[in-house]
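Lecture 7 notes: from sequence to structure.
We start with the chain below.
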Amino acid sequence: MADRREDSAIGQAASTAHTAYGALKTGKAIAAAAKGASAAGPYGAVAGALWGSRHHIGKIIAVIAFLLLLPVLFILMLPSVIFGGLTGSGTSSSALPILNDNSAITENINDISFTINQILGEGIDDVEARIAQDFAGTDGDKYEVVNPYEGNLVSNANLILSQYCAAKNQDWEHISISELEQVLRAEKKSLYTFSRTSEVRSVPDDPETEEDESSSELWYIYTILYQGEAYFADQIFHLSDDQKELADNYAQNLSLFLGDGMFQYTEGSDSIPSLGTIRFTDGATEVVYYNQLDDRYADEPYGTDDIGGYGCGPTSMAIVVSSLTSDTVDPIEMAEWAYQNGYWCSKSGSYHSLIPGAAKAWGLPVEGCTASEPQRIVDALSQGKLVVALMTKGHFTSSGHFIVLRGVQDNKILVADPASYNRSQKAWDLSIILNEASRRAGSGGPFWIIG
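Predicted structure tokens for the same chain:
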């Protein structure tokens, strides 16, 4: 009987381990496992099976060995750069293990993405300098640079990070953002190349003279070429085929893990007719309302994206700043400010730090708040403050979306939804907003009390 129980324990632990292995390898496990294992993280299910069989630990040592030899140990390879390690160094400022501190994880991811994008931008500067040097050695009269990536380079930061981690094999103790930055910066001269063609262009006559001044000039046309993520794998990180597969799995798992509230996109983002000047006066504070889909703003740029699709963050802060200060700041101006100050995230909307960053830039007090503090939210709204909220899939969005909470009426919450004037005219149960707020917001969110 005892042997049967031991066999069952071994089978349960082994089965769970193989399930974790298979799911990780195909990029399916991390999001669900991390959410379901509050104490143990992504391997909580495996740890639970082992703990339940602790009396038979001698018989399941082989299962433990199997776990330690998994070739896709997500929590061993990525923690040092995202999760801060597995020991005391992985404890966040909230005293939680960082694996379970969503805010700390998101902050780390934002730092990594910013670092990668910054170096890619430096690579553009470098290739433009090389082009100027190349032209100086030609017999051309003038030159033109065609940069297809000018504000429009969509890079896969998750994959680049994962390639770096995979290149370290099992040397995860030395994985760090600073080393990744050092490796990429050392290679920035090779991140872009250029091609060169030439053509003769006529010079038009000067309309202010009657003389025939027609002439021609020799122009060189340079086109910048981005090497791409495959180049990183082959030439920068020198990955083997197995490491490339591992990197792809890491990137897929990481994207799944970070899917909650990281990407802000307005579905069906066709513009709507101009709403004109709208003021909401039914809350404690009069609120200036902007809509990102308004045809005055929808097609205007947010970085290389557009405000209509990705500008809920700047539009929300345009509402807040225009309502709480003497400045009138529309979504176009706020989007440009956010872009210039590093808060735009290509094809993902805005870094969460936009909210406190913009509030402070306009001299507004701002405090982060969690979904477990509903009374703080209600009190703040009753006092005339505004609250920016980051929402996930539900009544307001199917991905991620910033909205503004603008008041309380009959125990319900008034909102200014930058993507829907209709939703902005309704009063909402606080429970809906609390339940649909992002669990993975950084920078003090998912609620920011401003004013």
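Points to note: The chain is about 45% helix and 15% strand. Confidence is low (pLDDT under 50) at residues 1-77, 85-92.
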